[in-house]
């Protein structure tokens, strides 16, 4: 199973936020993500220094180290699955706020087709401007 599950443009349109850095971008980035710089798999975003407001849609096959680094960075928005795991408990016990995305939410595959997961997805935010941005997508929890 591939980790290439792209965030649809509609999410960014709703949030109205520009990010300094996408830490988990596809190799050539995505033109609909409002970001000034990105790290692809070749750049190994986990080993890079993060700065500014971060956008993160990490590999769902191994989100734990990404979530830990995102929580420590404390300035950004992350798209994450709802999961029964230690990393998810760390999120729930943090200062991050979240919005549960609707059950109809679909990612975009590399070939442009909509794709769904069998688990709920959520947007997480740290930082006041980021929390306000996700509030435009759904109810803050």
Please describe what this structure looks like.
This protein is globular. It has one domain (9-135). The termini are far apart. The longest helix is centred in the middle third of the chain and has 10 residues, at 64-73. It has helices at 9-15, 64-73, 86-92, 128-135; strands at residues 19-25, 35-40, 54-56, 76-81, 97-100, 107-108, 114-115, 121-126. The protein has 141 residues and is α/β, with parallel strands linked by helices. The strands form 2 sheets. The protein has a 6-stranded mixed sheet with strand order 2-1-3-4-8-5, sandwiched between helices. The protein has a two-stranded antiparallel ribbon with strand order 6-7. The chain contains 4 helices and 8 strands. Helix 2 (64-73) packs parallel to helix 3. Helix 2 links the parallel strand 3 (54-56) and strand 4 (76-81).
List descriptors.
two-stranded antiparallel ribbon, six-stranded mixed sheet, 8 strands, 141 residues, 23% helix, 4 helices, alpha/beta
Q: Provide a count of the helices.
A: 4
Q: What is the multimeric organization of the chains shown?
A: single chain
Order of strands, main sheet, comes to 2-1-3-4-8-5
Give the overall form.
globular
Radius of gyration: 14 Å
> How many domain modules?
1
Strand content: 25-35%
Q: Summary?
A:
The chain has 141 residues and is of the alpha/beta class.
Topology readout:
Layout: H1 9-15, E1 19-25, E2 35-40, E3 54-56, H2 64-73, E4 76-81, H3 86-92, E5 97-100, E6 107-108, E7 114-115, E8 121-126, H4 128-135
Parallel strand pairs: 1-2, 1-3, 3-4
Antiparallel strand pairs: 4-8, 5-8, 6-7
């Amino acid at each position: 199973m591939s980790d290439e599950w792209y965030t649809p443009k509609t999410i960014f349109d709703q949030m109205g936020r520009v990010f300094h850095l996408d830490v988990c971008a596809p190799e050539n980035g995505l033109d609909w993500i409002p970001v000034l710089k990105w790290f692809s798999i070749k750049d190994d975003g986990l080993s890079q220094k993060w700065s500014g407001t971060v956008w993160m849609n990490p590999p769902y096959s191994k989100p734990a180290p990404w979530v830990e680094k995102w929580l420590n960075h404390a300035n950004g928005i992350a798209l994450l699955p709802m999961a029964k795991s230690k990393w998810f408990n760390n999120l729930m016990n943090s200062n991050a706020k979240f919005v549960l995305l609707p059950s109809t939410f679909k990612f975009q595959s590399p070939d442009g087709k909509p794709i769904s997961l069998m688990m709920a997805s959520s947007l997480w935010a740290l930082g006041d401007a980021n929390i306000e941005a996700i509030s435009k997508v759904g109810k803050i929890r």
